Amino acid sequence: PAASAVLDSDEAVILTASPTFMAKPWLQQYLGVPEENVYGAALEVKNGRFTGKTGDLPLGQTKVDLLNQSPACTAPGVQLTGYGDHSSDVPFLRACSRGVLVEELPEAQSAGCEYEPARPMEPSVLAVILAI
């Protein structure tokens, strides 16, 4: 559901725990998300090489803070739909106008976020992505 929502949105902002250096070009090329709208994990670089160490991962409250800093998310009248797959996403989802979990969590963990099961990508969506 998240990929379809990104393709259908006027402007998408992606907050991911995936490394930024991987997420930004992929999301730009295949889903048309501007690089300045992608917030991911920063990997430490030492002597020109990635060490595998990360700084603050965009999880939990950090995602909420990034959401509140993004110009695309703070414009008046913006309706935000957030998608997450882990209990650490719940604070972020609750900060959105609509929070959707794509993995089912027990009610005690989901904190009232709605559940929409992840599903295989529809051929028409895949065709759009591959045509880019």
* SS content category: alpha/beta
Taken from the alpha-carbon principal axes, the silhouette is globular
As a percent range, the share of helical residues equals: 25-40%
* Arithmetic mean pLDDT: 82
**What is the radius of gyration computed over CA atoms, rounded to a whole number of angstroms?**
15 Å
Tell me what portion of residues adopts beta-strand conformation.
Answer: 15-25%
CA(first)-CA(last) distance? 19 Å
DSSP helical segment count: 7
Parts with pLDDT < 50 across at least 5 consecutive residues: none
Tell me about the biggest sheet? Answer: 3 strands, parallel
Question: What is the number of beta strands?
Answer: 7
Strand order of the largest sheet: 5-6-7
- What is the string of SSEs from the N terminus onward? HEHEEEHHEHEHEH
Q: What would you note in describing this structure?
A:
By secondary structure, the chain is an alpha/beta fold. It is built from 7 helices and 7 strands; from the N terminus they run H-E-H-E-E-E-H-H-E-H-E-H-E-H. It has helices at residues 2-8, 20-31, 61-69, 71-74, 90-95, 107-110, 123-131; strands at 14-19, 38-41, 43-46, 49-54, 81-84, 98-101, 114-115. Strands 5-6-7 form a 3-stranded parallel beta sheet. Strands 1-2 form a two-stranded parallel ribbon. Helix 6 (107-110) links the parallel strand 6 and strand 7. The chain is globular. It starts with a helix and ends with a helix.
